[in-house]
Amino acid sequence: MDYDVAIIGGGVIGCAAAYFLRTAGVDRICVIEPDSTYAKAATPVATGGCRRLFSLPENIRMSQFSIEFLKAWPEVQWRERGYLFVVGEDHAEVLEGNCRTQESLGVKVELMDRSRIAARYPWMRTDDLALGVLSPEDGWLDPNSVLQGFRKQALALGARFIADRVVDVYIAGSAVTELELASGTRVRANAVINAAGCWAASIAKLAGMDLPVNPMRRFEHYVEIAGELPPMPLIKDPERLVIRPEGKGYSVGLVRSDEPRGFNFDVDPGYFESVVWPACASRIPAFEALKLKREWAGLYDECELDGNMILGNWPGGLDNFYVACGFSGHGLMHAPAVGRALAELIVKGRYETIDLSRMGYQRVLDDAPYRERGIV
């Protein structure tokens, strides 16, 4: 089978790439995805938050485009309730610097000291805080609707989805020539995108490319409390605790960076009680009497180099093999911008809207991390 572009991985990044490639005029596109139920995919179990609160201009600009793009889809159930980052004294200077960067790029943000945080959110503990930044135009959405929306649009535009798995990659010179699938089928393509998420590193290794990307387990919990709090933004505090409203209750989570890497989808029954619940109650006293209703586990495709995505081809290695992985929890919110960027790279040979060259594989080769400041 011959294609202009073969995309490995039919998650939100792969589907977004297929959509933008088709709208850019690329005719023959296939998306190779072994599981159309997405039982182990990252997106369906994501928190769903979309924010402009980053320190790197690239991430801010990707969020600006992606959020406006997604807000135009009624099915994503956009909730523009805002994002609130709060920090203690140790991180106040960094948070304020990031706020100035965000303002300079046109993001609507409000910097608040402890007294203003306490006055606006009297139900939140603030004695350990120094500063907060509120981005009122950020919010959250239904993650699965974004994935299914891109998939349906890609299909409607003529992209072909192949229910199979890549088991080998064939190379001639500096180009990938064929992909071998588990069924024995060979796929030939002029360009290949590796958007396999947590499986991206193993796919890249078939092509001789090393990616510092590993699966990292994270938990999400849905809780309800007896009383009712006023409308709140998504809150992220110094301990990486995230709380946001969800239906009658709240979606809460606390990601630990030292989580052992690997494909582990088991829920740790003791983690919520020993770590997450105390953190929730410490930040918002009303959560002391919460009731855990549901919890689940998912995976980040964690970029071990610096926590930012790796996007683009392999300079000096493989010209037509593009990677889009290592999103470290930011894939959903940046999917539209990444899909558009991949279409630009493949069709035009360069970035035309947002220059994402600093997110490329060259920094991996150079061991030159490009990290966010004070933000994960």
Note the topology.
Blueprint (H helix, E strand, L loop, with lengths): L1 E7 L3 H12 L5 E4 L16 E2 L6 H15 L11 E5 L4 H13 L5 E4 H7 L10 E5 L3 E2 L2 H14 L3 E3 L3 E7 L2 E7 L4 E9 L5 H7 L6 E12 L9 E3 L4 E6 L2 E6 L14 H15 L7 E13 L6 E5 L3 E8 L5 H18 L13 H4 L11
Parallel strand pairs: 1-2, 1-11, 2-8, 4-13, 11-18
Antiparallel strand pairs: 3-7, 4-6, 5-6, 9-10, 10-11, 12-15, 12-16, 13-14, 14-15, 17-18
Helix pairs in contact: 1-5, 1-8, 2-8
Please characterize this protein's 3D structure.
By secondary structure, the protein is of the alpha/beta class. It folds into 2 domains: 2-44 and 144-212 and 306-365, FAD/NAD(P)-binding domain; 81-138 and 215-301, D-Amino Acid Oxidase, subunit A, domain 2 (D-Amino Acid Oxidase, Chain A, domain 2), CATH 3.30.9. It contains 9 helices and 18 strands. A hairpin with a 4-residue loop joins strand 13 (234-236) and strand 14 (241-246). Helix 1 packs parallel to helix 5 (143-156), helix 1 runs parallel beside helix 8 (331-348) and helix 2 packs across helix 8 (331-348). The chain is globular. It starts with a strand and ends in an 11-residue tail after the last helix.
Question: How would you sum up this structure in a few lines?
Answer:
This protein has 9 helices and 18 strands. It is of the alpha/beta class and 376 residues long.
Number of domains: 2
What is the fourth-level CATH superfamily of the largest domain? FAD/NAD(P)-binding domain
The tally of beta strands, per DSSP, is 18
Elements, N to C (H/E):
EHEEHEHEHEEHEEEEHEEEEHEEEHH
CATH arch. level architecture of the largest domain = 3-Layer(bba) Sandwich
Show unreliable segments.
Answer: none
Oligomer: single chain
The outline comes out as globular
Structural class: alpha/beta
Our Rg estimate from Cα atoms comes to 21 Å
| CATH classification, class level of the largest domain | Alpha Beta
Number of helices: 9
* Mean pLDDT metric: 96
CATH topology of the largest domain: FAD/NAD(P)-binding domain
Distance from N terminus to C terminus (CA atoms, Å) equals 41 Å
Assess the beta-strand content as a share of residues.
25-35%
Largest sheet: 8 strands, mixed
Task: Give helix % range.
Answer: 25-40%
